Amino acid sequence: MDPYSAEGELLNIHTAFHQGQYQTVIDYDTSPFSSENALPARILQLRAQIALGHAEDVLADIEGETDDTPDLAAVAALAHYASGDVDTGVTEAEKLAKGAPENAMVQVLAGTVLQAAGKGEQALELLTKHQGSLEAVALIVQIHLQQNRLDLALKEVQAARKWAQDSLLIRIAEAWVGLRLGGERYQSAFYEFEEMAQTSNSTPNATKSLIGQAVAEIHLGRLPEAEAALQQALQKDSEDANAIANSLVLKFLMGKGEGPDGEMMSSLKTRAPEHPYLVDLEAKSRLFDQAAQKYSAKLAS
User: Fewer Cβ atoms within 10 Å of its own Cβ: the N or the C terminal residue of the chain?
Assistant: First the structure.
C-alpha cells in the first residue's frame, strides 16, 4: 500500500507538513508506524524542525548516521544550507545527486538545495528521475515557474493529475500554475488556498495557505481581503519572511508603501537578507541608477 494514500499511515503527518503545520509534525506520535515507514516519518519531523529554524539541532540529531543512509545525508545537506553553510549544503547535494540519484529523498531534498542555490537545471536533471514522487513533481513545477516556463509547469501538473488524482500536493501545484495563468484560474487558486487555510487555521504555524490566499486575493483586486489574510498570517508567525514580503507588496498597491528604512522592510532585511523580493528590488534599483546616470550625462552635455 502507498503510505501516502488515503489509507496509508503517513497521510496525516505528510499532509500536515505540506500545510505548514510544522509543530504538529514534530509532536506527531510515530510510534505506531510500521518499521518501513519509521524513517520517512522521522525525516518529515526533521524537515519540520529545519522549517522552524532549528537546522543546527537537526545536524546534531543525525550526526554519525549520514554515511550509510542517503536519506539522512540529504536531510543534512538541506540543514547545512538552511543554517547558512551554503557551500557545504550545495557540495553535499551535488555529491548525493551523483552517488544516489535514484533515492526519492535525495531527489527531493538535494533538488531543493540545488534549486535554492540557483542551479535549477541540475535540480531538474535529478528530479526527473523520480518514480511517482509527488514532492518531486511539485518541485519541478516550482522550477519551471521560476524559469518562466509556464507551458512546462502546466504540462507537468496535467500529467501528474492523471495518476495523482486529488492529492494535496497536486492541488497546490495547480493553484501555483493558476496564479500564473490568470483569468478564471485566480478564483480557482483562491478557493484552493482558502480551503487549506480553513483546514489548518487552528495551528500556529499554518501561514503558507493564508499567504497563498492573500496572493490570489491581490490578483483578484480584493486588496482589503488580502490585507486581512496577511495580517492573520503575521499574527500566527510574525517572522515569516514570505508573509512580510507580500505585505510590503500589498502596501505599495494600497498606496501605503514603506521606504527602504521602514519597519517592515527592516524586518525582512534582518530575517531574510537574501529573500527573492530583496534581491529583485536591489537588482531593479541598480538598473534604475544606471539609466538615471545615462540620462544625467545627456543633460549635462
Answer: C
